[in-house]
Write a structure and sequence with these properties.
single chain
């Protein structure tokens, strides 16, 4: 699960500095080990941000999410802001709207957004493919890449239509509406390849 960057943070931040007085911090620490607690928190946060945009994201993210959600809103906002700062680098995307993160619901919406971008998109993508492919031959191959390029405008339209009908969050809608076409095409195509079997199963059922 761990990657090198996250482990370096965990190990490096677990060492107490001799010139620091930790007595006051131990009073407010739940376990009496404030240095270790801080190191573990930064490790969890790094696991999320360092895996953004990688195939390893889902496994690593889900492994630490329940622990992350135990932190205070103020602490989780540190992670939320790190996610926002990493998005241009990891996804080549920034929100066109200034979403204020003020409470746990706002933070959870951001979690939902990165889950959608990374892995929680099977339902919408398979439904879009069902609109694209008519008269499907069960023995035929599904040339995802060529179909993505051929039907890009229709894919974008259907993604937005389905998302609005399904009451997706404003963050997800902003992503679908404003993501540049080249990056969107790559995202949709690559995610479709990952869930190709699910797409084929849905098409066969219909």
């Amino acid at each position: 699960m761990e990657n090198d960057e996250s482990l370096k943070i965990l190990l490096g931040n677990s060492i107490e500095l001799p010139e620091v007085d930790y007595d006051d911090e131990k009073v407010s620490s739940e376990t009496g080990h404030p240095v270790e607690e801080e190191a573990l928190k930064e490790y969890y946060f790094s696991v999320v941000t360092s895996n953004m945009g990688l195939p390893t994201f889902k496994e690593n993210y889900l492994a630490v999410l329940s622990d992350i959600k135990k932190y205070t809103i103020e602490e989780q906002l540190l992670l939320a802001n790190s996610i926002l700062q990493k998005m241009p680098e990891k996804y080549n995307f920034e929100f066109s709207i200034n979403f204020e993160l003020l409470n746990q619901d706002d933070i959870n919406e951001l979690y939902d957004f990165i889950e959608f971008v990374e892995y929680d998109h099977e339902k919408i993508i398979t439904n879009v493919w069902s609109y694209l492919i008519l008269g499907y031959n069960e023995s035929a191959q599904l040339p995802i890449e060529s179909l993505c390029n051929k039907h890009l405008e229709k894919i974008i339209h259907e993604m937005n239509e389905y998302a609005e009908r399904s009451n997706y969050s404003e963050m997800i809608l902003d992503f679908l509406r404003t993501y540049n076409k080249e990056d969107f095409a790559e995202w949709f195509c690559e995610k479709s390849k990952v869930i190709k079997n699910s797409i084929l199963i849905k098409l066969r059922k219909e």
